[in-house]
Amino acid sequence: MGFFSWIVLGLIVGILAKWIMPGKDGGGFIMTVVLGVVGAMVGGYVSTLLGMGTVTGFNLPSLVIAVVGALLVLFVYKKMAN
């Protein structure tokens, strides 16, 4: 995936993660994109280690893996911020 594809995927995944796990957390648009991109990378890395697949583009399995990774990153971010 290209640079802009990661940003678009990161935005979508970051928004989904913040929607699934609402609450007070700092950051705005940029933080949402960063959360999504990092979450996609974490989700891809963990799922590859477990033999479940990777983030390969805009498809449903990649989106699910990326959202789970973003939820994990958001959880850790909220714990560290408090």
Automatic annotation (TrEMBL):
Keywords: Cell membrane, Membrane, Transmembrane, Transmembrane helix. It holds the Pfam family Transgly_assoc. The chain crosses the membrane at residues 6-21, 28-46, 58-77. Its main location: membrane. GO terms for cellular component: plasma membrane. The keyword Phosphoprotein does not apply. It is a multi-pass membrane protein. It is found in: Cell membrane. PANTHER family: UPF0410 PROTEIN YEAQ, UPF0410 PROTEIN YMGE. Belongs to the UPF0410 family. This is Transglycosylase associated protein.
